[in-house]
Specification:
alpha/beta, de novo design (two linked rop proteins), 8-stranded mixed beta sheet, 46% helix, globular
Length: 402
């Protein structure tokens, strides 16, 4: 599917933010008008136009807030939050350099979300989760009174927990689940403000989150589900293999291995067979090949804090569920997108490796949900995922009560 742009990365990112309109993360004509002003494949133009739209909509929200129009303020501030996030998406391309505009746009995105919190339809509390010698950021959303099943949710390679609100949190709250959205190393505030890069042993991230969740009286500790999207389709199952207090795990979409040969970086050649000079040549060629590779490599160097291309490939090679997936014991849902341009065939590899109660859930072109993480098909995705979760957690109730 291509929208306005022929470049796949630009088209997909436009679809991504357009799709979030259904939960208030954008407005359709604001997106189309912004995109119409962007020059094809020009990342500077992408930043400038989304930045312009974000600031315009933010001003609307702040005026509404000052005049006491809470609902109007919330709607505009949430859109501005997401437009700021979108504006900085392609600002991590230049390896070894940091564009200060990326940090500024990110901080504006958070500021807009924080201003919207008092006007959200469900109570939201910004929380700090103890983690090693510091903490992880999170938002705890309450669906209502009382102790309830709770969804723990994080993003993947590039998302933020503010963006998670548009795609997943509202759907969980509307179905009666409390929701704890959080970020770990390599993500959101943790990479941008704490400078902590991704780590493959994601259980070291999720176990402190579960520990924190169990301290809250609102959370039913027997009915905790963990959901991860995109690269989170590796991270969440990895955590579930070692953190057995989870009642369910959801991978949207499943990712079995993030290694260089599996992602097509080395053309199938084992990394150990390549010299560092050859690796440098391969990745420099990939950067010139198209914007998707340029963004993926730049984002990876930054979020993994890699010191060289060889270091990057060695690091991503650690992200595999081989010999680990069979340790997952909780019911696990693996979603798959028919035309995923990032992780084709990976979900089925994960599903086949699982030994726990498992469900494979394909989304097709016929479903209009074939894109990576079913972008643009939020209602269908959430219907299928949360219906599965309802049924999975309900099946635990007799055993829990015996």
């Amino acid at each position: 599917m291509k929208i306005l742009f022929t470049d796949q990365s630009f088209s997909f990112e436009l679809l991504r933010i357009l799709g979030e309109a259904v939960y208030g993360g954008s407005d359709i004509n604001e997106c189309l008008q912004t995109a119409a002003n962007i020059r094809e494949g020009d990342c500077e133009s992408w930043y400038q136009e989304w930045h312009r739209t974000a600031e315009h909509v933010q001003r609307i929200g702040e005026v509404c807030m000052a005049r006491g129009h809470g609902t109007s303020a919330r709607e505009a501030l949430l859109r501005a939050c997401n437009y700021h996030r979108c504006s900085e998406f392609f600002l991590h391309l230049d390896i070894g350099k940091e564009d200060p505009r990326a940090q500024s746009a990110y901080l504006q995105s958070i500021a807009c979300f924080r201003k919207a919190i008092p006007y959200l339809p469900f109570p939201c509390e910004e929380v700090s989760i103890p983690y090693e010698n510091g903490s992880l950021p999170g938002y705890f959303f309450r669906a209502g009174e009382g102790r309830r099943a709770t969804l723990l949710v994080h993003s993947g390679f590039d998302g933020t927990m503010e963006e998670i609100y548009f795609g997943q949190v509202q759907a969980a709250l509307e179905r009666g689940y409390h929701c704890l959205a959080f970020e770990g190393p390599g993500q959101g505030r943790v990479i941008r403000l704490q400078r902590l890069p991704f780590r493959p042993d994601w259980e070291k991230v999720v176990t402190p989150v579960v520990d924190y969740a169990l301290t809250r009286p609102e959370i039913d500790g027997d009915h905790l589900a963990l959901k991860g999207g995109s690269m989170g389709g590796y991270l969440a199952p990895r955590a579930a293999a070692f953190e057995h207090r989870l009642a369910a795990c959801i991978a949207v979409d499943g990712l079995f291995s993030f290694g260089p040969s599996d992602l097509g970086i080395t053309g199938g050649a084992p990394l150990a067979s390549l010299t560092e000079e050859r690796i440098d040549a391969i990745l420099r060629a990939k950067i010139q090949e198209n914007l998707q590779w340029r963004w993926s490599i730049g984002q990876g160097m930054w979020a993994m804090q890699a010191t060289s291309f060889l270091d990057l490939l060695n690091k991503i090679g650690q992200y595999t569920l081989e010999g680990i997936a069979d340790q997952i014991t909780c019911p696990t849902l693996v979603c798959d997108a028919e035309k995923d341009h990032f992780f084709d065939k990976q979900p089925k590899m994960l599903y086949d490796a699982l030994q726990c109660p498992k469900t494979y859930m394909p989304f097709t072109t016929e479903d209009a949900a074939e894109e990576h993480c079913h972008t643009g098909a939020s209602f269908l995705l959430n219907q299928r995922v949360f219906d599965w979760l309802d049924e999975t957690l309900a099946a635990r109730m007799p055993a829990d009560r015996s």
